[in-house]
Amino acid sequence: MSITLGTNIPAHTARTKLDSVVGNLTKTMERLSSGVKINRAGDDAAGLAISQNMEATIRGSRQAMNNIQNAKSYLAIAEDGMVSISEHFQRINDLLTNMANDTNDDNSRTASVREIIERLSEIDRLAKTTNFNGRTMLDGNIDPETGESKPIVIQMGPSKDETSTLDISAALSKCFVSSFGATLPTNLDPDGGEFKPTNENCRAYMGIIQNAIATLSTRRGLLGAYENRIDSSYDNMTIRIESLESAKSNYVDTDIAKEATNLTHNQILEQVNIAMLTQANSLQSMALSLLGG
Fold it and tell me: What is the number of alpha carbons within 13 Å of residue 293 lying toward its C-beta?
């Protein structure tokens, strides 16, 4: 190789290699210090896109789990309201069963009807006031503009698909006395003039009340089915998030052992290239010796 005072090719070569090693060393140190191997899009454009999609799904799934927990509380309060209403219907049925017995006179039957009237009023109050976070749940969820029942949809997943939602409104229809067709008959109303609470009238109304109890039990059963379904969805979501976190980790988390090895390797290369750059820069000084310098 000729000795010149112009371009120092060995020095340029050593400098280029040193820049490359320093760049690799910087990336390795960045990955070790941050704990992630994709610190910017240029590190892995495809991996970044995939990991961000996974992150969106994971975060959406976590929020869906919160939604499910809220839905469980919502259904629990709704069922508590139904339990109270059912207890009132059961007591009314007890009273009617007693009233249907001919050992009772008109006065005792009238006294029992007074209690029935109060319990019917309490059922309507419960249907109107039972609520979760200010939202009533046993009044049919009526839209004031259309007068129709609105769906009550739980977002149980991270996507817009119907498979991620559950409409629970079927179990939360109106629980007013009139909704069960259980309004007090005029022939049992003590203020109704000539109708009186005879045993036949009591038995007829008893059948209506028992039908209301059966209807309410069916709705509670549907609530239970919804609760079991969202419990299962919650468990599945937990497993899904765990799998997604593991998959995302493969794309973004730093392999500490690998990067520690790279760190040592690049540090050695850095020292070697610095030494070579020093040697390359000293080549031109040989020209002085040839000139007698």
Answer: 8
Task: Write the DSSP symbol of residue 253.
Answer: B
User: Would the pTM count as exceeding 0.85?
Assistant: no
The CATH homologous superfamily to which domain 45-252 belongs is: f41 fragment of flagellin, N-terminal domain (1.20.1330.10)
pLDDT in tens, 237-285: 899 898 888 888 877 767 777 777 877 877 777 777 777 777 766 666 6
Distant-in-sequence contacts of 31-35, Cβ < 8 A, 24+ apart? 31/254, 31/259, 32/254, 32/256, 32/259, 32/260, 32/263, 34/254, 35/253, 35/254
Q: Which two tokens stand for residue 20?
A: 């490359």
Q: Which of 73, 85, 54, 102 is nearest to 246 (CA)?
A: 54
Yes or no: say if 105 and 77 are a contact pair by the CB < 8 Å rule: no
| Model pLDDT for residues 120-148, shown as the tens digit of each residue | 999 999 999 999 888 888 988 777 677 67
